[in-house]
Write the structure tokens for this entry.
Amino acid sequence: MAPRWWLLILCLAGNILHGRAQLDSRGFINIDCGLQGEESYIDDETKLVYVSDAGFTDTGTPYNLSAENFLPWRSRNVRSLRSFPDGVRNCYTLGSLVSGLKYLFRATFLYGNYDGLNKRPASFDLYIGVNFWTAVNISLWGLDQDNRVTVEAIVVVPHNLVQVCLVNTGGGTPFISGLELRPLKMSLYPQATAELGLFLLRRRNFAAINGTIIRFPDDPYDRLWYPRSDATMWAEMTTTERVDDVDGDEFEAPMAVLQTAIKPLNASGSIRFGWEVAPELNNASPGPGYLAVLHLVELELLGGDALRQFNISVNHDESWVPGYTPPGYLRRAYVYNKFTNPSHSSYIVTIKATANSTLPPIISAYELFSIITTTNIGTESQDATAVMAIKAKYGVQKNWMGDPCFPKTMAWDGLNCSYAAANPPGITSINLSFSGLNSDISSSFAHLKALQYLDLSNNNLTGSIPDALSQLPSLTVIDLSGNQLSGSIPSGLLKRIQDGFLVLRHGNNPNLCTDRNSCQLAAKRKSKLAIYVSVPILVIVLIVSVSLLVLFFLRRRNQQQGSMKNRTAVKPQNEEAMSTSYGGDDDSLRLVENRRFTYKELERITNGFDRVLGEGGFGRVYDGFLEDGTQVAVKLRSHSSNQGVKEFLAEAQILTRIHHKNLVSMIGYCKDREYMALVYEYMAQGTLREHIAASGRNGGCLPWRQRLKNALESAQGLEYLHTGCNPPLIHRDVKATNILLNARLEAKIADFGLTKAFDYHNNTHLFTNTLAFTPGYVDPEYQATMQPTTKSDVYSLGVVLLELVTGKPAILSDPEPTSIVQWARQRLARGNMEGVVDARMQGGYDINGVWKVAEIALKCTAQGSAQRPTMADVVAQLQECVELEEGRAPSFHTGGSSGDDNYNAYTSAQSTDVSNNTAFETELRIPTLAADPGPTAR
Ligand SMILES: *[C@@H]1O[C@H](CO)[C@@H](O)[C@H](O)[C@H]1NC(C)=O
Ligand SMILES: *[C@@H]1O[C@H](CO)[C@@H](O)[C@H](O)[C@H]1NC(C)=O
Ligand SMILES: *[C@@H]1O[C@H](CO)[C@@H](O)[C@H](O)[C@H]1NC(C)=O
Ligand SMILES: *[C@@H]1O[C@H](CO)[C@@H](O)[C@H](O)[C@H]1NC(C)=O
Ligand SMILES: *[C@@H]1O[C@H](CO)[C@@H](O)[C@H](O)[C@H]1NC(C)=O
Ligand SMILES: *[C@@H]1O[C@H](CO)[C@@H](O)[C@H](O)[C@H]1NC(C)=O
């Protein structure tokens, strides 16, 4: 569930945090806030190394305690602090954590009149990530000799990096003296899960020797066990004998804590402690309840008839633990319970001997936690990563601390976020105008996939405009005016502007080349251009000396050349225009980002057309390497066939116009005498069909999650053709062999040889002189009417979805040829999902998710096109399936406690739960399917 974006931020944190290693060898983080004049020191008491907080936060002001409080006997940790007078939220960033593991967080506060005002802040709030931890009330005195206030929580961290934030709630300037982090074994405190944290109210060690706090190294997790004794009520017991360890101990209280205990002075007396329900601990709303853990070890060797037996009751209800006897001499034991009764305003725990007991009750220690919820979700991971990178790159100050969008009231200045229910917030707009930004435009802007509005005006941005911005589907306004940008406006953006999807403001960039023709010419044909420019100048010189006639003739010639250049640079807006422009005119393909190769170059690139990647009706596809080592696929038209010239040119034209991450992109082309070739990005993992048939290059059965992802990616590529292009493009040959996978197993639609523009203005809809299709994939309506529509692609994609669900080819050959649509429809109509879903996935999926995809596939393959969803609907629905599947991710916390039982006594070694193994099946099985019968020839 938890996105892993913090992993990426880690690299970034390296920048912010000066690359300092944050963890010591135990995984501890020990921060002495406000420490100055030295980087680190060894703490006298624990011998742990404490470091300055300078590498963990970039705001706030360091202070020492006032002179009268800066006393030598005080722990060094609390003699300095950091105060945050500015901004509502200020944060510490703790990196190098392990996402999904459990940590103990501890923050320490000692005011010590650091500001000379002698006025403690009444209260401020503390957050771990986006979840409320506690309100800090400094006016309370702490329990230790320094009177410091210490707050502690045990939580499972969702990311590899966590921010601890102080929030000014109007109760005075927040400050902090120390911040510590200790990793815990996952099996400890099983009540702390991804959704619930434990906020420590109290941790008491009865009869502590010399009244000292026990912590590291006695407690390897460095919990603070505060001493508690009262000689008027309790007798103290101590032992120097070892207390036995037991397997599966869920709390691992340190030995030193368990070696001391109390019993009532009066054998018939009781031990009591209690707490009040304090809603402010849970942000003004009562939390899910409390957890109490009692550590009970027998420290006396009991004679034959002696019996120590006691009832542990809560609010006089004796049913919590009736008739408890510690399991044996020096044997570790504990009992715990969650208390969630909302009607109680306070709880009192009473430990009292039973009537049969010959000895008074004993107790060594107890811990009391308020349960806190940790279910708030921060900004969508990719957005958060991107905007953190932007912050780091430009050193943005503002209030850019903590989570970018969450909570809404503290969202970063200049950002707008979408807060759709159930989804993590996404960033929809960024305004960084007049922010003094230097250097080039960060590529991270192009990762903000929900971005609609980007304002970077009036800064000092240099370099060129990244074309990657054209990939942002929702981006409608970019304001780059008032900068120092250079280069030209990239073609992808120009395309979106021409299509009316985007407004780009670029005024007041003196070095920006905004006339596309002259920019291209400047870049590509400097020398020729020089001639065209110098010709008129020459002519003007000649006017003077020769004749007006010569002048007239030369100028006319020059204009003609100019207008020809114009035509080639402007992309044709429809198929008709294209078809008129390509007949024999090489310039028609000479578009800015595509390289033109000679046949000789192709020979070199492909090592003499050495390795064949695939073959189609058009010709063969060869493996090749460009000079810079980029691997490419070269599709060479076989000149034995007349077929394909038109398709070749059509595909080349289309490919120069479309740019999308889920469409295979063209690197260049070749039109050298009779040779024609297209050079594409290399798709290392071959066709989706190969993977479905489990004859993929790595073998193995494609897991469901991967299938789902590829389905969504394919739909996104087609959606771009249908809605992102003007006029819309119809692929006309969608099939599993035309969906290719790159090295990261990302799907891209390939083969645009049959792609057609869909012209709404001409009501005819028709560009089909031939019916293009592959059996099994063809839309029956298109077959009947010869009129392809975008819904024809929807139909074909539906077939691909069925292939993904069933693992079967588009046409089943057994016992006689049947289309997969018919086959699946019959079975699904009877509710027979199991008979349809690919058995090789061996249940590595959520059946509801598979049903949903099957349903989408059936809708897509509806007989009539009007009943089919649009590609955008398909994308939206598949997106939901992906989210559902991601929500199914195995979580890190183990089985969970039996804490809802009223009685949880630890008596002997328990076996731990075997956690569910929900990992995906990747076992290799021999494919039982017939080879793909779908012909590839056209
Ligand atoms: C705090 O005191 C230390 C010396 O003990 C000194 O080096 C440091 O600069 C002081 N910090 C501030 C903020 O005055
Ligand atoms: C802080 O604690 C003191 C003492 O218990 C109490 O009087 C005060 O109201 C508390 N302040 C806040 C803001 O909770
Ligand atoms: C308790 O204090 C005494 C005297 O100061 C000392 O000798 C002894 O070592 C201390 N015991 C512990 C466990 O710290
Ligand atoms: C012990 O406690 C019982 C019941 O609370 C009381 O009646 C009795 O007097 C106590 N004995 C002493 C010695 O305090
Ligand atoms: C107390 O002892 C009697 C006799 O041994 C037994 O019947 C009774 O169940 C015991 N009560 C408890 C609470 O264990
Ligand atoms: C750009 O930088 C120059 C000097 O480097 C500075 O004078 C100018 O104010 C800056 N402009 C903006 C808009 O920040």
Observations:
- The longest helix spans residues 548-569.
